[in-house]
Amino acid sequence: MARVALVTGGTRGIGAAIAKKLKEDGNTVVVCDVVEDQIKSFADATGIAGYNINIADHASVAEGAEKIKSDVGPVDILVNNAGITRDGIMTKMTREKNWDPIIAVNLGGVFNTCNVFLPGMNERKWGRIVNISSMNGQRGQPGQTNYSATKAGVIGFSRSLALEAARSGVTVNCICPGFILTEMTAAMKPEMLEAMVKMIPLGRIGQPEDIANGVSFLTQESSGWITGETMSINGGQFMY
Q1: Residues with a known catalytic role
Q2: What predicted TM-score, i.e. pTM, was given to this entire model?
């Protein structure tokens, strides 16, 4: 049965790989982002429709949900992938630059989308929510107290929501990616990439498709008895 899937931050990197994989699985997939050019270029390249939705703004999410419902139907699969970083050591951080924006997008955005889309899933007695956390939300990382806090928060949020949603047949799970090769990491110096590989037991840097495969598994009909779980996809770099 074809389902409607929404991937937030789905026009690049991990999000784009997830959107493509879910489409391969037979779902009707849409993505959202806040950069119009990226939305258009991704749609042109993949045939996957995109919506300009600011997940940090509850009203924007609610408005976007109505547009998606009108265009393709109600969302059955929600993948919260969108996130930002504002790295820095604690003594140099400010609330305005480093804390409030990260909380608003990485944690507030997950609240907003789940708050808007979960009621419909509950009514239809079926749904899949996959929240993309991070290995650094499990282990911590110097210079990322803000980011790590939000990603750890996403794990706790997901476990609690899984308990609430279970009675309606809706599953809620997390994926914690490790070091993934994206446009940003590909620009790193070769020696830095080599050093990173040495820290990964499986001997390679992860690909966006590695994360997409995990999302695909958790959103299948056959994965309906898995909820409240945190799936680490990091090549063995951190075992939690």
Answers
A1: 147
A2: 0.96
